[in-house]
Amino acid sequence: MIPAVRFEPKNMAGENLAYYYNEAVQKRAPLIFVDHDIFYPPFVHERMSAYIEAEPDIPHVSPYLLYPKSTGLPRPVWHMRNFLDQIKNAVWSDITWQFCDSFAFGFAYVPKKDWDALYSYVEFLNWRHVADEYCFFRWYNRYPQARIHWDCLVCHSHS
């Protein structure tokens, strides 16, 4: 099973990104990135690991809901988006999507070839900018979409 590394908010800056980069990328060992407030049953981890092992060259993401308290939107939305032409025209995902352009690192995998590019862009940024949609918009203009695994739902505890 692919290791899942939980990142705590107090260390969300370059320290965690450097750890992820050193452990996953330089050692070429895949890791699943897990945000500190994401919870999931063991079968989700096992299933996601199998998906990554079957397709290690594309990003993989587990969906979770964001609620009006954190988004300001009138209804809950899935945390993934697709960009129609620019960031202000992003569309929130629905359960018919198999791929997305933008996702948070809640429970996700990024392959080495894409992580190299992302890390070089974000290693000196504040963590809040790393998760910024604009960063992913720029990244996904050049890199592949992430596969969404609807049978690997996770819970985001504060959204």
What does this structure look like?
The chain has about 160 residues and is α+β, with helices and mostly antiparallel strands. The protein has one domain. It is about 35% helix and about 20% strand. The chain has 6 helices and 12 strands. The strands form 4 sheets. Strands 1-2-10-4-11-9 form a 6-stranded mixed beta sheet, covered by helices on one side. Helix 1 runs antiparallel to helix 4. The longest helix has 13 residues. The model has no long low-confidence stretch (mean pLDDT about 75).
Please give a handful of descriptors for the protein shown.
6 helices; 159 residues
Give the helix/strand layout.
Layout lengths: L3 E4 L6 H13 L5 E4 L2 E2 L2 H13 L5 E2 L3 E2 L1 H4 L5 E2 L2 E3 L6 E3 L6 E2 L6 E3 L2 H11 L4 H4 L2 H8 L5 E3 L6 E2 L3
Parallel strand pairs: 1-2, 4-11
Antiparallel strand pairs: 2-10, 3-12, 4-10, 5-6, 7-8, 9-11
Helix pairs in contact: 1-4
Question: For the terminal residues, how far apart are their CA atoms?
Answer: 28 Å
Runs in which pLDDT lies below 50 for 5 or more consecutive residues are none
Radius of gyration: 15 Å
Give the strand line-up of the largest sheet.
1-2-10-4-11-9
Question: What is the number of helical segments per DSSP (H or I, 4+ residues)?
Answer: 6
Mean of pLDDT = 76
Number of strands: 12
Overall structural class, as computed from helix and strand content, comes to alpha+beta
Q: What proportion strand? A: 15-25%
- Please state the overall shape, judged from the principal axes of the Cα atoms: globular
Name the helix and strand elements from N-terminus to C-terminus, one letter apiece.
EHEEHEEHEEEEEHHHEE
The largest pleated sheet is described as:
6 strands, mixed
Number of domains: 1
Helix percentage: 25-40%
